[in-house]
Amino acid sequence: MFKERFFHSAAFLLILGLSLFTERVSASTLEKVKERGYLTCGVGEHDFGFAQRDIQGKWHGFDVDFCRAVATATLGDPTAVRFVPVDSQNRITTLLEGEIDLLTRTTTWTLGRDAAMEINFTRITLYEVQGVLARSELGITQLNEAQAGTICVNSGTTSALNLADYLKRNQSNLKMLVLETQQGRWDAFFNGRCDLMTSDRIDLQAGAAILAPNLDDYVILPDVISKEPLAPAVRNDDDQWFDIVKWVINTTIASEEFGISSQNFVAKKEELPPQASRLFSDNNELGEALGLDTGWASRVILDVGNYGEIFNRNLGENSQFKIERGLNNIWTNGGLMYALPAR
Predict the structure, then answer these.
(1) pLDDT tens across 238-260, in order?
(2) With pLDDT > 90 as the criterion, what percentage of the chain qualifies?
(3) Alpha-carbon distance 307 to 204, whole Å?
(4) Of 78, 167, 231, 325, which is the most exposed, with the fewest CB atoms less than 10 Å away?
(5) CA distance 188 to 194
(6) What is the Cα 239 distance to its own chain's centre?
(7) In sequence order, which residues have a C-beta less than 8 Å from that of residue 137 and are 6 or more positions away?
(8) Does position 8 have pLDDT exceeding 70, yes or no?
(9) How many CB atoms lie within 10 A of CB 127?
């Protein structure tokens, strides 16, 4: 009896020890980021309006700004980010293998990715649609008027899958030309290897504005091939990190609803309404639930800005692209952006 109890006790202590050891070595993402001193974030490259480097090598773009927002919330420094260029083939693998902490590169939230892959989408940052860019010389006003020719698309994307569905459903004679990279897709289109090109509509608008030799020679057709909700993703092994990224994004939307921006934050802080005070006051307690300090939300707005500022400087009225917000306006202005309650 004594030996039996001894062995049972020893086994219990061994399991407990292994469990405690596992807890120690399996540090949370937040702990790893703090220990490392910077966030690793997966973004596109030459992804106009979303992620690109200037001649000094500094990163800019819509996806880049959400990386910076998470960095300042967690580390107190919006520049504490190491950007990792990823493409449509390797973006999710790079996240799953732990090479990045966060994936913000234009990635569509789908059931297959959400349920079959070990990732979690955090919050939709862009309500997009898949569109088509055509040569004006084709003389078509919608896609079903193109009876023949070739249409370019990137591999490893929902755009390729949606296009295949569209061509089959409409019994189209168009041929698909599948390219691995965005640059390869644009080169093929402008070099005449394809007559049309499909991707997210904002990607087509921004790319054409930058790359087209003569913008009047091309037209974006009114066709909507699919809905493309784009959202940053994290691995599904860390609920705390999932919550942090989700609520950082939500804070950018909430602050725009409150009428708070990086430009007026200091002035407005003295007269915050109760719902905003819960996020931005110096003694708020919401950060503790996320493992963050009391100033995390204030830094997001001061250092990066609210959602409208992020959209407008990278894609909208204050950018070279002048893309209308449309569905990406806040709900009080007729859009779909709606902040979750911070309480």
Answers:
(1) 999 999 999 999 999 999 999 99
(2) 82
(3) 22
(4) 167
(5) 6
(6) 18
(7) 217
(8) no
(9) 17
Please tell me the class of the 129-229 domain.
Answer: alpha beta
Per-residue pLDDT at 283: 78
What confidence score (pLDDT) does residue 11 get? 43
For the whole model, what pTM was predicted?
0.90
Question: What one-letter code names the amino acid at 190?
Answer: F
Residue 60 CB: number of other CB atoms within 10 A?
A: 15
Type of residue at 336 = L
CB-based burial label for 46 (10 Å; 0-12, 13-18, 19+)? middle
Determine the Cα–Cα distance for residues 335 and 80; give it in Å rounded to an integer: 32
CA distance 263 to 268: 10
pLDDT at 196: 96
C-alpha distances (whole Å) from 201 to each of 215, 228, 288, 323 are 15, 10, 39, 10
In angstroms, the CA 58 to CA 29 distance is 25
Q: Are strands 150-154 and 196-200 parallel, antiparallel or unpaired?
A: parallel
Could you tell me which residues come within 8 angstroms of residue 118 by beta carbon, excluding any fewer than 6 positions away?
96, 235, 236, 237
Measure the CA–CA gap between 120 and 112, rounded to whole angstroms. Answer: 11
Cα separations in angstroms, 187 against 80, 164, 190, 233, 287: 34, 21, 5, 29, 47
CATH, domain range 37-125+231-333? 3.40.190.10
Looking at every residue in the chain, the average pLDDT score rounds to 91
Alpha helical stretches, state H, the chain: 2-25, 29-36, 62-75, 91-96, 111, 158-169, 182-190, 201-211, 239-258, 265-268, 274-280, 286-290, 296-303, 307-314
| Cα four-point dihedral sign 197, 203, 206, 211 | negative
Per-residue pLDDT at 26? 64
Report which of 223, 202, 214, 233 is spatially closest to residue 326, judged by C-alpha positions. 202
Report residue 243: phi and psi, to 5°: -65, -40
List CB contacts of 80: < 8 A, sequence separation 6 or more.
37, 38, 39, 71, 72
